[in-house]
Amino acid sequence: MISASLEDYLEFIHNTILEKKEIKAIDISKAFNISRPSVSEALIKLADKDLIIYEGRKGIKMTKKGIEQAQKTVKKHKILSDFFTKVLKIDREQAEKNACKIEHVIDDEIIEKMENYKESKYKDNE
Amino acid sequence: MISASLEDYLEFIHNTILEKKEIKAIDISKAFNISRPSVSEALIKLADKDLIIYEGRKGIKMTKKGIEQAQKTVKKHKILSDFFTKVLKIDREQAEKNACKIEHVIDDEIIEKMENYKESKYKDNE
DNA sequence: TATCATTGTTAGGCTCTCCTTACTTTTTTC
DNA sequence: GAAAAAAGTAAGGAGAGCCTAACAATGATA
Question: Stated in angstroms, how far is A56 CA from D8 C1'?
Answer without folding.
Answer: 50
